[in-house]
Write a structure and sequence with these properties.
- The protein has helices at 2-5, 20-29, 35-42, 46-52.
- It is mostly helical and 62 residues long.
- The chain has one domain.
- The longest helix has 10 residues, at 20-29.
- It starts with a helix and ends in a 10-residue tail after the last helix.
Length: 62
């Protein structure tokens, strides 16, 4: 989803995932994605999507 519809990643990293699912479902409500397409995209590995886009992630061990 990030690779298709989200703005460019921030330098400071991801702010959090609390609003991630509601924002993603908003794409369904706005008819940008079907519910089936959303489910398919949610099962993709977000790290692979971001790194395949040429971005490097600085992940902290939590």
């Amino acid at each position: 989803i990030a690779s298709d519809y989200a703005p460019e990643p921030r330098i400071t990293g991801i702010a959090g995932f609390r609003s991630f699912l509601p924002l993603c479902y908003g794409l369904v409500l706005q008819s940008v994605l079907s519910e089936k397409q959303l489910k398919e995209k949610l099962f993709l590995n977000p790290i692979k999507i971001i790194t395949n886009g040429g971005y490097k992630l600085k992940l902290k061990n939590v």
